[in-house]
Write a structure and sequence with these properties.
The structure is a homotetramer of 351-residue chains.
Chain A (H helix, E strand, L loop, with lengths): L4 E2 L4 E5 L6 E7 L9 H11 L17 E4 L1 E2 L2 E2 L4 E6 L21 H8 L15 H16 L4 E9 L2 E2 L18 H16 L6 E8 L13 H10 L4 E6 L10 H4 L3 E2 L2 E2 L7 E2 L2 E2 L4 E7 L9 E4 L5 E4 L10 H27 L1
Antiparallel strand pairs in A: 1-2, 2-3, 3-7, 4-7, 5-6, 8-9, 8-10, 10-16, 11-16, 12-13, 14-15, 17-18
Chain lengths: 351, 351, 351, 351
């Protein structure tokens, strides 16, 4: 109800504020007898952590994961896994100046309107720090999906108006923005560094490809595969849109162009993005999300304070000028959570 | 689990195939003591029904709603409402030729892959006919939202590449495509009639504006208002993408442009689309969806049959060359369901 | 939330008032490709219907089931089944005298307190008529359990202080009270007929045995097999208690007596009732429920009316002097729903 | 699905094994702006902890609670509370001898059958240690219920065949078995000490009274107040039965005896136990549970090992000879969880 649980069978419940003691996740519905260790999860955490490069925040969150239940002698037992990351390097006093003002683009105003109280320190629960728990839970889903032969791969497709022209899987983890085109990636980095130098930020587009999914995944009529992925992605703070396959292009196509014809080897095109009628076709699943520019900028902006008075604000601090490279592992994590859950839901109906 | 229920507090569960006896909906969690009658629901059904104009399917579904429980002396009792529409004008034999072939763009292939069996008659449960139950349930949500002063308005923004240039609320229900620009609407109708004459179809963009929502709606971190709306919209068969506020444009904006500044009268812009941090700001909520071209076309297409043999197919029958005008009331219905549910979820937490 | 849905994977949602147009059920999560027909469901409905014998209400509800979706050519398709029973033989005017008074033992007072409105005709949604939809849904679960080799058998164990002394499975459906001891059953019938003649009623105990369940069913820590069965049984209107295995006797046993020892052939006793730690052991599952005397009696009783004034009331009408024989199929239906759901939940976790 | 979450709006999700690093709970759906501190929770933990008296296990679990999220400046923020208890005084090697044998009455056998793997150390997740997380979550519900004027009071009513003859609220927390009759309590203690001396154990009956609940709580038809309480209580490991009001006595009463008549001051009796039609009447809610004798005894018992060979077993270690006094706070915690959740569900429907 309160929305801190995601999934139906393979289910995560998260907690934790940016400057609280810890962020963590209980993962329920985990297949028993599967080998999982902290190092496997840590690898995904390291892809999300700040301070990785010149284009990410210099904060050090020391995202060291600990598994505190659900594992016995290196294997899952079928009982809930608890994975926790204790917070360190917290500087709550750095946020004193924003305690009584609403930063534009931030959830300061809406959280206060909703709950009548807010933990302003580092945005509290509205902080991107919250996604660390998603990545931890998603790593466990990823482990289970590996056994099914499913691969989930996200990458930056566009930043600040600069688009990738090629798709080269091998370069993604080799450049600081996680672009799929090394040349475009280099330009993106320059652009981000420039924006950082003037205290501004920019958005971008992240694309995700999923391979190896059986045909048949997704639960019509409401819990379609694309519907579940859309919810998962829009639940990430900075995401403002999603499209599957031909996406918004489909709006100006003819039926005779858009329909994916088949021959005995399979589909002849993939305008559907691997999903028809809310069910996977067996083709590559492909979607793109729009990522808004980071709200925290040190440019002076106009806003109001909690007394309703007009004030100016300038968010100092250690922020990412472009969130795309760090959102990539979060997108993958959320996609893994959706897929593993739907595999188990499919098993339930036939079980 | 199987995905035929939508919502958590205000909750609908639907059933029904295109050529079965009926489609219907159980609506649970309805506020007691509210006046609701069949005429109110019927009005929404009539906006969705086929045969309204030259640009919709000539089928006659006789969508006459009946409320069979949950009402006593004209008022809701707090027990579940059951609303049913008996099917008529069914011609299942019209589908005999597609019984053993997979129509491109249709869910024929994926349903068979998923369930190992499929009701091919008029696409069975994958038919757009299923959305009639959503509109019936959504009408009840709309009634409850009226009492809150919330208005939900969807309309066609683009069809076959023709875009609306103005926004005139009054013309929407006056033109057959439900465009918000009468002149563009007239061009769209011509384009659709032409495509119909050559057996092809086209897609479009539907926009939705929601007014009167309190600030504070939406349940972070996973059940954000935009996440729930995205799921709702992508659960509609033909929808391939959604964007909120600046949407995909946000990807190429700077933070200093995108952030919505505030003064004492409120927000100075609405790039966020009325939602920040997954919670309503109190501004107009605005989103757009991409609608794919109707899959059913009478152009000859290449496909395979259930034996895996290559065949050609040409879908005859009574189909909509562009689904936008009839998807408009479905979009509104789904938005109403999301909003009424989130209002009740908000009440639960404080209750 | 509003409580008209039962189950997580195999899930029923019901609607309908005693004197409304119909009662019905949507069954979601049904295994595809299973043969089910109306006759199979009807057989269970006939065991629940009134007018079966001298000890049940003479009302005729004409419980004729119709399946209106989810079946294609005699087999389930994986889409929701809708099963409906249209109401007939309604005499709402028979309830005019109780419109403004609260019948002792009935939910008249509590429904009005809860919802602020009530459909008084035949108790509306609080009527035992509501259980018809459960029996319809339970019949579908029973069909699926047959394929697993699971049998669910309930019967009357005690009525009005008269206890069964033997357990003879073959006589259960041969006597009007569904007692497991023909001799005790004959005495029970006499007692019930006498109470009916003086306008009073009595309670009893119904026992249920479940055979053929695999070891391993049940979801600790909260959704234990006994916890789910307890909820299911207490959700039936007249039930006031439940006990498993040794039950309330366990309270006065020693650990050395109660613990079920094992040898290589299995358990040496079954004080646990086939459930340990909330998980099935593979032994027979056995529980008993306490059924209160029917509230509707024609003895004069003291009560108040909706104005808070003291009045006398005497409930005329067509009521069961003892509900045990008709509650037996409802107990079986609810047990089937719990079991099929837990089988599918077990499959989900490993799936 | 996997059953580690309880509640719908006010919802707890727990994790933790007896000899793992910690047990803990995420509490979601907490009313914002309520003062809660660790001391309030600790008080309930101390009532549950072992080592309180001569009749409880001498283990020291050091149940020191820490709240690690969801609180800001002493008040709830509406975001999830995380409450954790780190385990100490663990002696996993004490369980080496039972690693390969199934202790009679324990969940050793069923857990292995279900999951194919088990953490045998101190029963792993099947340990009573798991209920510490319930008491922590229940304390938060209790805090919210205090604001509503609701009181939940459980106590031992019977132990080893010795029954309380009086009900004296003031003595409950003054005697080591938490009996409501000081004299009976003293006899119970003697009996338990004797059984402990010979390595055996006994069961008992715990009763619970709930006062101050508004009329109208409970969600028919499936989520009735008594159905939800029954599930909650049967989800506690040692509980084998529950009865409300007249309970199993109702089975031998006449309708004219059992029906609770009313006059203008309210109900004239309370055979219903404060619940009619699954909804609270406003009277005291009263139920009793049957608690089985502790399974862990040092009497020699017959069992099998994981190879299916017959062996003898004798459970040494630090166990409670009667679990009643320590189950009392768990019963209260579960009742609080059910009530707070149903209050919020009621608010949702009208909200």
């Amino acid at each position: 109800m309160a929305g801190n649980t995601f999934g139906e069978v393979f289910k995560i419940t998260t907690f934790g504020e940016s400057h609280g003691a810890a962020v963590g996740v209980i993962v329920d519905g985990v297949t028993p007898n599967v080998e999982i260790d902290e190092a496997y999860i840590q690898k995904q955490m390291d892809r999300r952590k700040p301070g990785q490069s010149s284009v990410t925040s210099p904060r050090k969150e020391y995202d060291v994961v600990q598994i505190q239940s659900g594992i016995f002698e290196g294997k899952t037992t079928g009982t809930p896994l608890f994975v926790v990351l204790y917070n360190k390097d917290m500087k709550p006093e750095a946020y004193n100046d924003i305690q009584h003002s609403f930063r534009p683009g931030h959830a300061d105003y809406t959280f206060l309107q909703k709950y009548g109280i807010r933990d302003h320190r580092g945005s509290g629960r509205a902080s991107g720090r919250e996604t660390a728990a998603r990545v931890a839970g998603g790593a466990i889903a990823r482990k289970l999906l590996e056994r099914r032969g499913v691969e989930v791969l996200a990458y930056t497709q566009e930043v600040g108006g600069i688009k990738c022209q090629t798709f080269d899987e091998d370069v993604i983890e080799q450049n600081a923005v996680r672009a799929c085109d090394a040349k475009a990636g280099a330009e993106m980095i320059k652009k981000i560094e420039h924006l950082a130098s003037i205290g501004d930020s920019c958005g971008g587009i992240v694309e995700c490809r999923i391979r190896g999914v059986i045909p048949g995944l997704g639960e019509p009529v409401f819990d379609k595969l694309d519907a579940e992925l859309a919810k998962a992605m829009l639940s990430i703070g900075a995401v403002k849109g999603i499209e599957f396959g031909a996406g918004f292009e489909a709006a100006s196509m003819l039926g005779s162009e858009h329909n994916d014809a088949m021959n005995k080897d399979g589909f002849l095109s993939n305008h559907s993005g691997g999903i028809i009628g809310g069910i996977s076709t067996g083709e590559e699943i492909i979607f793109r999300i729009s990522v808004k520019p980071t709200s925290s900028i040190s440019v002076t902006q106009q806003t109001i304070n909690t007394n309703g008075e007009e004030v100016e604000i300038k968010t100092e601090g250690r922020h990412d000028p472009c969130i795309c490279p760090r959102i990539v592992p979060v997108v993958e994590a959320m996609a893994c959570l959706v897929l593993e859950d739907l595999y188990k839901r499919q098993a339930a109906i036939f079980g």
